[in-house]
Design goal:
By secondary structure, the chain is of the alpha/beta class.
Length: 253
């Protein structure tokens, strides 16, 4: 039997997980008067208080118009950032035949423009929310999957890993908040390895209430209502997770 093209899958959230950027930051950049409302909406759905669809519907009502490509580019030029070592981790995965999948409530348009500008490695799969989307860009398979609700994250990962005919021990899932709870719950049952990154109490609460064990905690574990520490978050180097992933999936280096 021939070996599949990919030997494992890493499915990761993005906002406040691999990047300090929030999913609605481009909107706040274009409409700064909405910053407080957007922050409240973000905390509400990542804390499992409202659905992602409710969050997106509310934001669309608040916006005067859709974000343009020029507005997204201006935001990325001013504010795009990943945590230390994230691009290197993605490149390491790709060089070792590990499919790196971004699976996030951030917008498709954010990734379309970030990759077009060379700010991110060209990962094979980006499952994101179409609240901002540039329909004339990247019409291939990369944006085949969407995240319209947080429950779409496990559905997306399940479809990808099953298409590769890989078992649970070849799956690593990375998340930070309660918005990743359903993803973690499904991955645990499937036999995947769970990594919490810049961990919020909403994720710990979701998992503990459902007896889901997080295999690895990486970065800051935030106490309830503890403010984010951006400088400390940047002190963690994500390339260190390559050793964890290699051991998890039994990768001979």
């Amino acid at each position: 039997m021939s070996r599949p093209r990919y030997r494992a899958v890493v499915s990761a959230d993005w906002s406040e997980c691999l990047s300090p950027n929030g999913p609605f930051d481009p909107i706040a950049f274009a409409y700064p008067e909405l910053t407080l409302e957007l922050s409240h909406i973000f905390k509400s759905y990542t804390g499992n208080v409202i659905s992602l669809d409710q969050a997106v519907s509310t934001i669309k009502r608040l916006m005067a118009s859709d974000l343009s490509r020029e507005q997204m580019d201006a935001y990325l030029d001013a504010s795009f950032k990943t945590y230390s070592g994230v691009p290197e981790l993605v490149e390491w995965c790709l060089s070792n035949d590990i499919l790196f999948m971004i699976n996030t409530t951030s917008s498709q348009g954010y990734f379309q423009r970030a990759m077009a500008k060379g700010l991110l490695p060209a990962v094979s799969v980006v499952a994101a929310n179409p609240i901002i989307r540039f329909s004339d860009e990247d019409k291939g398979e990369r944006y085949r999957y969407a995240v319209l609700e947080i429950e779409d994250k496990p559905r997306n990962t399940k479809e990808v890993i099953q298409s590769l005919n890989l078992p649970g021990r070849k799956l690593v899932v990375i998340g930070d908040s309660g918005g990743d709870g359903p993803h973690f719950q499904w991955a645990a049952k499937f036999g995947g390895f769970l990594i919490g990154s810049m961990i919020k109490q909403s994720l710990l609460t979701y998992c503990s209430s459902r007896e889901v064990f997080i295999d690895k905690l990486f970065g800051i574990v935030y106490a309830p209502d503890e403010p984010r520490d951006a400088d400390r978050e940047m002190s963690f180097n994500f390339i260190q997770l390559s050793e964890v992933i290699a051991e998890t999936i039994d990768l001979a280096l």
